Amino acid sequence: MTTNLLRRKKDRIDDLAAAGGGTSLAADAFKRMSRSPIAIIGAVITALFVLLAILSPFIAPKDPHIPYDALKNNLRPDSIPGPMPGFILGSDQNGYDFFSRLLVGSQQTLIVGVVATLIGVVIGMIIGGLAGALGGWVDTLLMRLTDILLAIPSLLLAISIAALFSHGTQWTVIIAVAVVSVPIFARLLRGAMLAQRSSDHVLAATALGVRRGTIVFRHMLPNSVGPVIVQATLTLATSIIDAAALSFLGLGDSDWTRAEWGLMLGKSQGLLDVKPELAFYPAIAIIVVALGFTLLGESLREALDPKNRR
């Protein structure tokens, strides 16, 4: 029986070799994600959001930055016009077309989330890369600073950073949200590079006398960025939520003419009894988009985990 089992395993290996070998981790991950309903839902939501953000200035029925007389003339302290001919969702509190601002707001929301995440990734990778590559006192110093940031709740840290600026702008929100994500990426990349340091190919390159810089940039770093990319997808969701929270608390962009979901949500907090749709629609949009990025990121992380390969 043992002989037959070994023979079947050998035949299976021969068949795989004859067929051109196995599949790469990336190809296997994509195949598994294409069969996952959660991954598909997350990818569809994310793709629709990105597509809407790109096309919104062209498909918006009205100019989102111009107040219209048909809406302004019907504004009252206790009444904001609802749907009417030419204005699908009616007016906002300033006489702008609410539907057009909701569409264009997707672009600003995407810009805030992506730019904040990119800044966090770049700075975090620099810190984590230096700590993982150099080790010693550099590693100790950088990681202790990272631990200090991690010890503070993320939203509280973002609020504290945003409060340091005398005048809130869109860049205030981006910087505050980016700083919050820096220690996450730094810790993640540093841990991955430490794991790579003891791998066979790094030890072999070291034994052959390959320069330290070459080992770091050609062997350790390329094999360590995978988890960072996955985490960036998840961080996009939290960046959008944190940015909306700062705007809601009055620490975000004070330019009310800018169409951005978080800002729209923050400016409508005092109008829930007049027209709750001004807060409900941006809030629902933020929740759905954050859910899409979260589902896609979690599915990507599970698909790329070698432990899940069969």
Automatic annotation (TrEMBL):
One Pfam assignment: OppC_N
Name of the molecule in the record: ABC transporter permease subunit
Subcellular location: Cell membrane
Boundaries of every ABC transmembrane type-1 domain copy: 106-297
Biological processes per GO annotation: transmembrane transport
Mode of membrane association: Multi-pass membrane protein
InterPro entries, A to Z: BP-dependent_transpt_permease, MetI-like, MetI-like_sf, OppC_N
Domain of life: Bacteria
Membrane spanning residue stretches: 38-60, 110-136, 148-165, 171-189, 228-251, 278-300
Keyword Membrane on entry: yes
Keywords, sorted A to Z: Cell membrane, Membrane, Transmembrane, Transmembrane helix, Transport
Protein family membership: Belongs to the binding-protein-dependent transport system permease family.
Gene Ontology CC terms, in alphabetical order: plasma membrane
